[in-house]
């Protein structure tokens, strides 16, 4: 599961400090959820000789839509041999041994695939990998009848395979990404034949930044900026702001996260879609935070990244960039404590509050549409619904401006600590009824929803009226 929350560009792209006064016309927070395939339950430490570890016999998994049925492998020897090949491939990458790395690729594979694998090895040269390995699940193998015909092959096999990797200085734990490898046996040895031949039966290969070109990496005390040479100037801008943004978020949310961040700057919309999901509206976002896997019971998240637009992020002013990074890092900090389906006005309002917290921008400038509405029709009659966050244009813009102002109301009138407590309580609810929300509001701030809205309205009259 990839959970994604971002800032959507609407209107003018002014990149001066004066343009920040109209920031809500430039940046409007948005939300999406995307699925990028199943994740393995088996883990194996990288760079080490370990036997393949199949999942427990009690593990059950239904077949995804449009994916062929799976069958168990007839022999554990095959799994051991294939795992050995994958382990040698990972070790070759760690040792920067291209010849050994390419020995894992079918010598009779399509030239384009072999070229792509050789480029992948080269593109990873500067990436600070703390871990890189593969896990193989033989009990999740595709039925041989759905595999393509490969002349001269002794055998074809398509077990479920995950890449397990972590970036040094950024990832507190490794993350798992699916690799749709088709394996082929020739002369009693196993090779990777393709990473696209199984698309038609539901096996997709995850693409990282290294699949799109040579990687340029800038490390800071609090994280990593990962991009390509063409975006070096923007990467330096982000790197200059990264540590300050992490520290600013940590001042509000100090525990439960690593206080480290990875920011990825893709070169194209195609690359951005590979990182955040094929259905995400990348043409209209400036940044989005994603996580590969979230366990709210443990308060943990894997593979968290902030992915910035390939076409729009460069236009951000210094102040706008700071706000964007703080907003997205807030989602990273609070991800392990946030259940999908919880009230959006709390989730996004809180992230905007932290984003603007050190900016010095008054509410009237940060929420220009809400300010204009106050002058013509007075304060809103209710908090924005979750449906409004799935809207477009002014509906979406107003939903975020209202949420931001509600968070500012709590912080200004009751204190920042109370706002953090309110987030922690409401973000754990998931999808619940209004009665439950009322009870939780009363437990934290002593006001039910009706009383909360009345206090918020008075605050808006004082601040914007």
Please describe the topology of this protein:
Blueprint: E1 2-9, H1 17-20, H2 23-26, E2 27-34, E3 70-71, H3 76-95, H4 98-102, H5 111-123, E4 129-137, E5 141-142, E6 155-157, E7 160-167, E8 175-179, E9 182-186, E10 189-194, E11 216-220, E12 223-227, H6 232-252, E13 261-264, H7 269-276, E14 285-291, E15 293-295, E16 300-302, E17 305-308, H8 318-334, H9 344-356, H10 363-366, H11 368-377, H12 393-414, H13 416-426, H14 434-445, H15 449-464
Parallel strand pairs: 12-13, 13-17
Antiparallel strand pairs: 1-2, 1-14, 3-5, 4-7, 6-9, 7-8, 9-10, 11-12, 14-17, 15-16
Helix pairs in contact: 6-8, 8-9, 9-12, 12-13, 12-15, 13-14
Beta-strand portion reads 15-25%
Overall mean pLDDT: 85
Low-confidence stretches: 1-74
Alpha-carbon distance between the two ends: 43 Å
CATH class (first level) name of the domain at 70-205 = Alpha Beta
What's the shape?
A: elongated
Helix content: 25-40%
Q: How big is the Rg? A: 24 Å
Q: Per CATH, which architecture of the domain at 70-205? A: Roll
- Total strands: 17
Number of helices: 15
Q: Spatial order of the strands in the main sheet? A: 2-1-14-17-13-12-11
What fold name goes in the CATH topology slot of the domain at 70-205? Nuclear Transport Factor 2, Chain: A
How does the major sheet shape up?
7 strands, mixed
Question: What class, by secondary structure content?
Answer: alpha+beta
């Amino acid at each position: 599961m990839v959970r994604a929350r971002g800032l959507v560009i609407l209107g003018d792209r002014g990149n001066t400090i004066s343009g920040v006064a109209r920031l809500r016309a430039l940046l409007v927070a948005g939300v999406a959820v995307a699925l990028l395939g199943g994740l393995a339950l088996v883990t194996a430490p990288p760079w080490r000789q370990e036997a393949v570890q199949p999942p427990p016999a009690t593990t059950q998994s239904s077949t995804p839509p449009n994916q062929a049925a799976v069958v168990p492998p007839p022999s554990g020897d095959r799994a051991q041999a294939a795992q050995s090949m994958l382990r040698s491939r990972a070790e070759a990458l760690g040792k920067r041994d291209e010849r050994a790395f390419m020995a894992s690729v079918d010598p009779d594979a399509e030239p384009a695939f072999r070229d792509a694998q050789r480029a992948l090895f080269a593109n990873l040269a500067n990436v600070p990998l703390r871990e890189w390995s593969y896990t193989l699940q033989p009990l999740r193998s595709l039925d041989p009848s759905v595999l393509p015909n490969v002349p001269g092959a002794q055998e074809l096999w398509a077990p479920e395979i995950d890449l397990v990797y972590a970036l040094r200085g950024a990832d507190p734990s490794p993350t798992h990404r699916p690799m749709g490898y088709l394996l082929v046996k020739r002369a009693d040895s196993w090779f990777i034949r393709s990473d696209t031949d199984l698309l038609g039966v539901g096996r997709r290969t995850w693409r990282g930044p290294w699949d799109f070109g040579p990687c340029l990496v800038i490390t800071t005390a609090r994280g990593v900026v990962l991009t390509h040479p063409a975006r070096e100037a923007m990467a330096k801008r982000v790197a200059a702001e990264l540590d300050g943004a992490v520290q600013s978020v940590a001042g509000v949310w100090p525990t439960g996260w690593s206080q480290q961040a990875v920011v990825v700057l893709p070169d194209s919309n195609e690359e951005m879609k590979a990182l955040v999901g094929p259905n995400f509206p990348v043409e209209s976002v400036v940044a989005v935070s994603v996580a590969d896997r979230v366990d709210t019971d443990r308060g943990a998240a894997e593979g968290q990244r902030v992915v910035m637009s390939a076409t729009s992020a460069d236009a951000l002013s210094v102040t706008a960039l700071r706000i964007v990074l703080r907003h997205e890092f807030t989602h990273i900090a609070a991800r392990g404590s946030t259940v999908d389906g919880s009230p959006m006005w709390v989730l996004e309002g809180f992230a905007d509050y932290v984003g603007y917290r050190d900016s010095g921008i008054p509410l009237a400038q940060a929420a220009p549409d809400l300010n204009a509405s106050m002058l013509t029709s007075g304060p809103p009659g209710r908090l924005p619904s979750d449906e409004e966050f799935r809207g477009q244009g002014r509906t979406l813009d107003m939903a975020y401006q209202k949420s931001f102002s509600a968070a500012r109301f709590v912080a200004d009138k009751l204190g920042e600590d109370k706002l953090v407590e309110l987030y922690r309580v409401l973000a754990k609810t998931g999808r619940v009824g209004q009665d439950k929300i009322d009870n939780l509001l009363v437990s934290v701030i002593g006001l039910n929803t009706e009383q909360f809205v009345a206090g918020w309205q008075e605050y808006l009259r004082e601040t914007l009226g």
